[in-house]
Amino acid sequence: MKTSAILSAVSLAATLVAGTAFADDSRHAAVKARTAIMGLYANNLGQLGAMAKGEADYNAEAATKAANNLALLVQLDQSTLWPQGSDNGAMDGTRALPDLWQNFPDVMAKGEALGKAVTTMQGAAGTDLASLQAAMGGLGGACSACHKAYRAPEN
């Protein structure tokens, strides 16, 4: 009887340890995936921003592609990429502040603002440089609103 109780306890402990390891692996995978998505945002925003600033020649086709890529990114279901405990206070490799999970309605509102700004950019990007430049402020503002509130500065 005593041996079966010990084996049950060891089995339960092993299950809990494996579950914790899975949760850690899952959080690390989520951070890696969301970091990759943020990199895609940055790449496409960088292309549009370079055109808007005159650092790159305006190219209607390239601008349209970048805006369309952003539209695809905002449509992705990212719900599994933001698990509780995947903030910079709980793990390395992320700049997401713990406040993000405490203010989720605000985060969602900022996400909706980003979606609207991307839609505006889609309509403007391929039109002409002036239209792209006009849409860039709203798009950049939507990104920075979330980053200022919920992303730690780079070390």
Structure description:
This protein has 155 residues and is an all-alpha fold. Helices cover 75% and strands 0% of the residues. Helix 1 runs antiparallel to helix 5 and helix 4 (104-125) runs antiparallel to helix 5 (129-150). The radius of gyration is 21 Å and the shape is elongated. The relative contact order is 0.13.
Order of helices and strands: HHHHH
Shape: elongated
The low-confidence runs, each spanning 5 or more residues with pLDDT under 50, are 7-22
Q: If you average the pLDDT, what whole number results?
A: 89
What is the strand tally? 0
In percent terms, what proportion of residues is strand? Answer: under 5%
CATH architecture: Up-down Bundle
When the domains are counted, the total is: 1
CATH topology: Four Helix Bundle (Hemerythrin (Met), subunit A)
Span between termini: 56 Å
Which structural class should the secondary elements be placed in? mainly alpha
Radius of gyration: 21 Å
CATH superfamily caption: Cytochrome c/b562
Give the helix proportion (percent range).
over 70%
- Counted by DSSP, the helix tally is 5
What is the multimeric organization of the chains shown? single chain
